[in-house]
Amino acid sequence: MLTWGALIAALLAVVVGVRWALTRVDTLGRSRPFPVASVAVLALGAVALATPGVLRIRLEHRLGAVTTALAGVPTTVHCQSFGQSMVDAGNELGFVRWGANGTPGHATLIKRDQCNDLSAYLRSDHRSPSEQQVIAVHVLTHEAMHMAGLTVESAAECAAVHQDARTAQLLGATPDEARALAERYWRTVYPRLTDEYRSADCTPPD
Question: What pTM was estimated for this model as a whole?
Answer without folding.
Answer: 0.76
